[in-house]
Design goal:
The chain is of the alpha+beta class. Helix content is 55%, strand content 11%. The protein has a domain of 206 residues: Nuclear Transport Factor 2, Chain: A, CATH 3.10.450. A five-stranded antiparallel β-sheet has the order 2-3-4-5-6. Strands 1-7 form a two-stranded parallel sheet. Strand 2 and strand 3 form a beta hairpin.
Length: 416
């Protein structure tokens, strides 16, 4: 899922950041390490998954389900997600078709339910703190069935979840049996399956076949590749990648690790990694989500915009992507274009925190003191922030010397 900052951030009194929190693009690669944290340690097992029951559920029922889920996360209520997770169904998808020792599969599913006191809902709430959102965008169609599409955006970056909904066997209620994670290019069950497979093989206690030996060796090499990347030894990570057997290299997490390492080893290496991964990801947005940060570091603003455009087309539209376009154009020194993108995002999704944050960035940079005061008031009224003394706030030096600031200080303070 996603571990990030304290969920109470948006309710605290705070100092505004210099130009707001969206003054630069988040490192989208970072969220991969969260979304795949469990699997990367033992990554590269085949990611096939059992089919999910495709019972016909009306679009009206799915929409109601999705809006209820969105509202629960907005209330910061982890039970709103946990209570609609069908762990038994998810566990069956994860463990299906993999030989294991007696009782091992059942124990694994029980472990998924417990998760050492953690919760899936709490993970999402943490991942959408500090003005982030878990937003129901629309229903999308896949193989004749409708699936709710959610945007997950917060301190760790941008992601999308596509939820597979079915009736829970125990009570007949709608529940989430699996979900597709855009940044990893696969379903959550496939990520868990990759973690489960080597454990199941060992639990069987039988002599390993040559194929199993090769698989487990590939898992170890992928873990070593990730360790080298985390430690900043990107060239070592790529050398380990080259030693992984070809058929095991063609797994999405392995390719994502390669791209993350290649970002830091040169343009040609990165271009080659993107090109070779493209057939594997096809219409997935993962590669583009990862590429934006690297493109910005290289000042390739038009290429970064093109990546956002591809994401927009593939997911069928999202106002938040106008915030990304605005941030990129602001970084490129085009404040008028950036402002237009932020205003477009707010028009399409009123109250979008990140869009107002971008407008605040621009107002502060351009010393538009009246607009700065207006936007600070917007954050207090619409987003529950309570600003303290701005005299020590970095970047607001000109604002605090202005008549607009002195007038702003006279505003009615929000009651909390």
């Amino acid at each position: 899922m996603n571990d990030a900052a304290d969920v109470s951030t948006v309710n605290r009194s705070r100092q505004p950041s210099h130009g707001g929190r969206m003054s630069s693009i988040r490192c989208f690669a970072a969220i991969v390490l969260v979304a795949l944290a469990a699997s990367l340690a033992k990554s590269a097992a085949p990611a096939t998954t059992a089919s999910i029951p495709a019972e016909k559920i009306s679009d009206e029922a799915l929409t109601e389900f999705a809006k209820h889920l969105e509202a629960g996360i907005a209330r910061r209520d982890p039970a709103s997600f946990d209570d609609v997770m069908d762990i038994d169904a998810l566990g069956k998808i994860v463990t299906s078709g993999i030989a294991a020792g007696p009782g091992f599969a059942g124990g694994f599913i029980t472990g998924l339910k417990g998760r050492s006191g953690q919760s899936y809902g709490r993970d999402i709430i943490r991942g959408t703190s500090d003005g982030g959102t878990y937003r129901f965008l629309r229903l999308v169609t896949e193989e004749g069935r409708s699936l709710p599409l959610f945007r997950m955006q917060g301190p760790s970056g941008l992601n999308y979840h596509k939820l597979y909904i079915a009736r829970r066997a125990t009570d007949g209620k709608l529940a989430i049996s699996d979900f597709h994670v855009a940044i990893s290019g696969e379903t959550f069950s496939q990520t868990l399956r990759r973690m489960y497979m080597p454990l199941a093989i060992d639990s069987a206690g039988e002599k390993r076949s040559p194929e199993a030996v090769e698989l487990l060796r590939s898992l170890e090499m992928t873990a070593a590749m990730n360790k080298a990347r985390v430690e900043g030894r990107h060239a070592d990570a790529l050398r380990t990648y080259a030693d992984i057997p070809a058929k095991h290299r063609q797994q999405k997490p392995v390719q994502l690790l390669r791209m993350m390492a290649a970002m830091h080893t040169g343009d040609e290496e990165y271009k080659q990694a993107l090109a070779e991964a493209a057939p594997l990801f096809k219409d997935d947005v993962a590669a583009d989500l990862l590429s934006i940060d690297a493109l910005l570091y290289q000042n390739k603003h038009s290429d970064a915009i093109a990546a956002v455009d591809r994401i927009d087309k593939r997911i069928g539209g999202d106002p938040f992507l106008d915030v990304m376009r605005g941030t990129i154009t602001m970084t490129a020194g085009k404040p008028a274009e950036a402002k237009a993108f932020a205003q477009s995002a707010l028009k399409r999704e009123p109250g979008l925190y990140a869009a107002s944050d971008l407008l605040l960035s621009l107002a502060v940079q351009q010393k538009d003191h009246a607009e700065t005061a207006r936007l600070l008031t917007v954050f207090e009224k619409e987003h529950g922030l309570d600003f303290g003394d701005l005299n020590a706030a970095e970047g607001y030096e000109a604002f605090v010397q202005s008549p607009e600031y002195k007038q702003w200080l006279k505003r009615p303070r929000p009651k909390r």
